[in-house]
């Protein structure tokens, strides 16, 4: 291509990005004002849509609505202030594929079997997109993370499962990564532009649109959203602010296309990110709070005059059971998660409308630390979250197969924290022998969860052979695959 053509192409991209950036301004919120009873009335509506926004690598405590001191997330904060925010929400893993499998199945990782880099969901697994298609929804996904590729079974139920082509990204900055391979082409603009086109062309049938953003994972932002400095942590905040601007463009399009007052917008994440709080940076290495405390925000077809904050614990396996309950859709089979509608109603001051008392846990997360090493044995760790404590434990590698019985672990393989006095998890209570009895009780809770029977299709989980190209694509987002 001649230099003149390259110049013209670059200019075209600049103009397109500049046009795109003009789309980030909110109009006044034109949704009707809803009451608490309006939440219950959602189940009787037949016009609801879902926009499911997954922001890869977004830790909750970097959003202002979750207490952060920087204005990283004005759009998400506004959605939370007029909707529902779950303040103590946790993912099921600190690694994308395991976490996403739990979101879509509603099951803990050892039950759905997606624990290693070559595991794939079988066709027998019934996922939310399949249920919604049976209910008459059109289903579409736009994604950039290779761990949710069709190779691993995540496309089940989607009529369109699209990885967008990438434009020439000019005017963007990226972190100076400690892993030189942690970069992929394009930016979240590619996802947003495709989503806007979908929303403009969609017909009158209800739809579910799943968007998987990656720029927070990549520490990538445009120059106009680079507000917070240039340190490693600052660049992460800049990328969140950039992603927030993309969400603003989505909301504006929903408003422009008269879709806002019949669409539920879901915002969550697959895992967080560590900045040395426990000696590590990044994710997919452990299960401390910084890598599994993620946001969950529901923005409804109507505005709540006072947003609802649910302070009781919740987890990613609860998301689809809750959405299906809100919508009056069929239940998700074999789920560990449960609807949090009663917690929503109780938090709104209407326990009289709730079907049951709020459930405070325990919550469960797990990670096979050998997930990327085909030749190495399993190295599983689990985390149990209760209202006042978090318990981390290394498992016997055979426990996930046996799913029962004591594991005879040394106390040095477990950690116990008091979340009231030590929310940053710095003081291990098991350094003191008097806390051994508490750990024994928590061990019993872990064993009970591990002993739950798997779904009928668990033995059909596939081991896929990845091509060199696929391995290269996954290395490009910063993962070491052996």
Structure characterization notes:
The protein has helices at residues 3-21, 36-41, 74-81, 96-105, 109-112, 128-134, 188-201, 215-218, 232-256, 289-292, 319-327, 341-347, 399-402, 436-450, 468-475; strands at 33-34, 49-55, 84-86, 89-90, 119-120, 138-143, 160-162, 172-174, 207-213, 220-222, 263-268, 274-275, 281-282, 296-299, 303-304, 308-310, 314-315, 363-368, 380-385, 389-394, 414-418, 462-463. With 482 residues, the chain is of the alpha/beta class. The chain folds into 2 domains: 15-353, Alkaline Phosphatase, subunit A; 363-475, Arylsulfatase, C-terminal domain (2-Layer Sandwich). A hairpin with a 3-residue loop joins β19 (380-385) and β20 (389-394). α7 runs parallel beside α9. The chain is globular.
Unreliable stretches: 4-15, 176-181, 399-412
**Approximately how much beta-strand content do the residues carry?**
15-25%
CATH first level of the largest domain: which class?
A: Alpha Beta
Assembly type of the chains comes to single chain
What is the number of helices?
15
- The spatial strand order of the largest sheet comes to 7-6-9-2-11-14-3-16
Q: Count the strands?
A: 22
The coarse silhouette is: globular
The appropriate CATH architecture of the largest domain is 3-Layer(aba) Sandwich
Give the total of domains.
2
- Tell me the major beta sheet: 8 strands, mixed
Determine the structural class based on helices, strands and strand pairing: alpha/beta
Cα(first) to Cα(last) distance is: 38 Å
Percent of residues in helices: 25-40%
Indicate the mean pLDDT.
87
Task: Identify the CATH homologous superfamily of the largest domain.
Answer: Alkaline Phosphatase, subunit A
CATH-defined fold name of the largest domain: Alkaline Phosphatase, subunit A
Rg from alpha-carbon coordinates: 22 Å
């Amino acid at each position: 291509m001649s230099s003149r053509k390259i110049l013209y192409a670059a200019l075209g991209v600049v103009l397109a990005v500049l046009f795109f950036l003009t789309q980030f301004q909110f109009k006044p919120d034109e949704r009707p004002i809803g009451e608490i009873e309006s939440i219950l009335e959602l189940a009787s509506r037949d016009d609801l849509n879902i926009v499911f926004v997954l922001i890869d690598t977004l830790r909750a405590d970097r959003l202002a609505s979750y207490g952060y001191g920087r204005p990283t997330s004005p759009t998400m904060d506004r959605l939370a202030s007029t909707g529902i925010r779950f303040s103590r929400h946790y993912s099921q893993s600190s690694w994308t594929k395991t976490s996403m499998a739990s979101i879509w199945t509603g099951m803990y990782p050892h039950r759905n079997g997606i624990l290693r880099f070559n595991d794939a969901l079988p066709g027998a697994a019934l996922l939310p997109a399949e249920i919604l298609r049976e209910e008459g929804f059109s289903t579409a996904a736009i994604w950039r993370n290779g761990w949710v590729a069709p190779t691993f079974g995540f496309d089940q139920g989607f009529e369109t499962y699209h990885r967008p082509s990438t434009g020439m990204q000019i005017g963007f900055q990226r972190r100076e990564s400690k892993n030189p391979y942690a970069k992929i082409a394009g930016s979240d603009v590619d996802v947003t532009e495709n989503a806007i086109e979908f929303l403009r062309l969609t017909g009158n049938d209800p739809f579910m649109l799943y968007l998987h953003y990656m720029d927070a994972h990549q520490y990538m932002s445009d120059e106009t959203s680079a507000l917070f400095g240039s340190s490693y942590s600052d660049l992460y905040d800049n990328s969140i602010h950039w992603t927030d601007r993309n969400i603003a463009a989505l909301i504006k399009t929903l408003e422009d296309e008269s879709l806002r007052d019949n669409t539920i917008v879901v915002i969550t994440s697959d895992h967080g990110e560590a900045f040395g709080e426990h000696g590590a940076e990044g994710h997919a290495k452990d299960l401390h709070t910084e890598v599994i405390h993620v946001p969950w925000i529901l923005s409804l077809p109507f505005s709540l005059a006072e947003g609802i904050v649910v302070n009781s614990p919740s987890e990613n396996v609860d998301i689809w059971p809750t959405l299906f309950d809100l919508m009056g859709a069929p239940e998700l089979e074999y789920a560990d998660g449960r609807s949090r509608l009663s917690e929503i109603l109780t938090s709104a001051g209407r326990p009289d409308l709730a079907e049951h008392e709020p459930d405070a846990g325990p919550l469960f997360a797990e990670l096979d630390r050998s997930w990327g090493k085909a030749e190495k044995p399993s190295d599983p760790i689990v985390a149990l979250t209760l209202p006042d404590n978090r318990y981390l434990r290394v498992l016997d590698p055979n426990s996930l197969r046996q799913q029962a019985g004591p594991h005879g672990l040394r106390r040095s393989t477990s950690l116990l924290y008091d979340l009231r006095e030590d929310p940053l998890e710095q003081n291990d209570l098991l350094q003191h022998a008097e806390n051994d009895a508490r750990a024994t009780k928590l061990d019993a809770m872990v064993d009970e969860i591990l002993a739950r029977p798997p779904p009928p299709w668990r033995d059909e989980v596939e081991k896929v052979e990845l091509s060199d190209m696929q391995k290269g694509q996954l290395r490009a987002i910063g993962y070491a695959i052996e």
